[in-house]
Design a protein that fits this description.
Helix content is 23%, strand content 32%. It has 171 residues and is an alpha+beta fold. The protein is globular.
């Protein structure tokens, strides 16, 4: 087994094992900028409502999104039994990671492009009316290729986890 695969498997076990935000409350920030100042996404594809807190020393961030029952995605994703799409949960993790990169590199938006979804697992559905808590961690944030690990929770239930890679583009 290659070293990269071993790293990914170790990260998957870590993400499944506990809430990424636990133990990082000691240095969280509460003066959080609005999400629109951190990432380039806008409605209807802005999938994070707010950044709740972050810990720059640990390269971690906590965000949230309310699953508005009137969101048009629910009308078409299993009509009569609406479920928030799993692929959009991966996108929420990616957007949270980009927000964290922007906080770690002050002075402007970080331009990134997704290169890979290395792993994604979906455990529980997000339903209309749920509030999703998105926790993410960025590995090697000053590299050209950055790995983002994240989780989506509702209350005390882990709904999904994903590991993605993004390319940071110098402008």
């Amino acid at each position: 087994m290659g070293e990269e695969l071993e790293d990914i498997l170790r990260l998957i076990r870590h993400l499944r094992g506990h809430d990424l935000w636990d133990g990082h409350r000691h240095s969280e920030h509460t003066d959080v900028p609005s999400i629109e100042t951190l990432i380039p996404h806008r409605n209807p594809f802005l999938l994070i409502d707010t950044v709740v807190a972050f810990d720059l020393n640990a390269a971690r961030l906590r965000a949230q999104r309310h699953m508005n029952p009137k969101d048009p995605v629910f009308a078409g994703h299993f009509p009569g039994d609406p479920v928030y799409p799993a692929v959009l949960q991966v996108e929420m993790i990616g957007q949270a990671g980009i927000a964290l990169l922007s906080l770690l590199e002050p002075g402007g938006h970080t331009k990134v492009r997704a290169t890979k979804v290395l792993h994604a697992t979906f455990f529980e559905p997000l339903l209309p009316g749920d509030t999703a808590h998105i926790n993410c961690v960025v590995f090697d944030p000053h590299s050209a290729i950055v790995r983002i690990g994240g989780q989506v929770w509702k209350e005390q239930t882990l709904c999904s986890l994903a590991i993605c890679e993004v390319l940071v583009i110098d402008e």
